[in-house]
């Protein structure tokens, strides 16, 4: 009892010490924004998320709006889902007025972004996919899942390759929210049908939470491979598709190089503005 009383009396002191340590740790971890920007830009996953953030949140950053729309929110969720992106959000502006204004303007997005990135939160499948795309391994696993499960999306077959791709995807840390995500109609792919067919034909389970009458119609497949991993939008009620006629084509091999060039340009522009 005496020990408990001593602990109780000293608890406020310990709490204060802990708070000071946390604050000092945060300050110590904050790095200059130009350095954080460069680290993110040159990492494949973070670099792509940074590009999306600069495009989707451009109006908010420039002060043209004070509203954090869904696409800006998802871009920020993707950005902070990577270690480099999290550093960028918490970076030190070092007195740069432009940097400080930009960070202040995106504060309106903070509640939604923090909720979406919380460990146990359930998010839309669009948001879950953005989180996965922030990580190179998860993005690659998602690409192969879409490639090898084409038959599953168009019919009732879950092939060995599809099951294997699904198994690899599920082992990715950033794919955790894909398992529990819900379809909200913002997806650029037949979300409910994909979830229903995956549950029924790959896991031999009939999902009770999906009404079969609400499933999107099956479109006739063609000779090209449909990959719905890009952040596109529906057009005239139909889903946009990105078609890869050859997985090993030269265009596919050049894509990472093109992305690196763009991230380099963005990093150079940022540094010039700061100077």
- Distance from first to last alpha carbon: 62 Å
Strand content: under 5%
**Segments where pLDDT lies below 50 for 5+ residues?**
1-28, 220-254, 260-275
Structural class: mainly alpha
Judging from the principal axes of the Cα atoms, what is the shape? elongated
Strands side by side in the biggest sheet: 1-2
Helix content: 55-70%
Protein architecture, described:
The chain has 275 residues and is an all-alpha fold. It folds into two domains: 31-121, no CATH class; 135-244, no CATH class. The protein is built from 14 helices and two strands. It has helices spanning 2-29, 33-41, 44-56, 58-61, 70-80, 83-89, 97-105, 110-117, 125-133, 136-148, 150-154, 160-170, 191-202, 250-274, and strands at 225-227, 242-244. A two-stranded antiparallel sheet has the order 1-2. Helix 2 packs antiparallel against helix 14, helix 3 (44-56) packs antiparallel against helix 5 and helix 5 (70-80) packs across helix 8. The longest helix has 28 residues, at 2-29. The radius of gyration is 22 Å and the shape is elongated.
Key structural traits:
disordered C terminus; 2 domains; 2% strand; mainly alpha; single chain; two-stranded antiparallel sheet; 275 residues
